[in-house]
Amino acid sequence: MRLTRRQVLVGAATSGLGAVGLYELVDRVASSERVRRAAGRFHSEQHLLDGLAVEQDNGVAVVIPPLHHAVVTAHVVTEDLRGAQRELEDTLTELERRYPPTPAGLGVTVAWGLPYFRRFVPQQADVHIPVDRRASGKAGRTVRALAHAIRFPSDPQGILLERNDVAVLLRSDVRKHIEDAERALFRGSRILRATSIRRGFVGSDFRAGPSLAKRMAQEARIDGADLIPDDAELFLGFTSTQQAALGPSKIANFETLGYVDLGPTAYFRNGTHMHVSHVFEDLASWYQTFDFQERVDTVFKPGVKVKSGTVTVSEAGPDAASAADVLDDFHRDGRIGHSSSIQSASRLVRDVVAPDGTVYTRGTAIPQRADFNTLDNPFAWSSKPERDTMQESPAAGLHFVVFNPTSDDFHRNRLAMDGVLPDGSRLKFGVRDRKQGFNAVLSTTHRQNFIVPPRRHRSFPLAEL
Amino acid sequence: MPDPLDARIGGTYGNGKSVSRDRSYLVSFFWGEPGSGEVHVNFRGYPGRTRIPTCSDLDTNRPVPCFSDPKGMVRVRDIAAHIYTANQGADQWHVLYAWQRGGSLYSISQHVAPPYTYTAVVRNLKRMLTGLVLVRPEP
Question: Is the confidence metric ipTM above 0.85 for this complex?
Answer without folding.
Answer: no
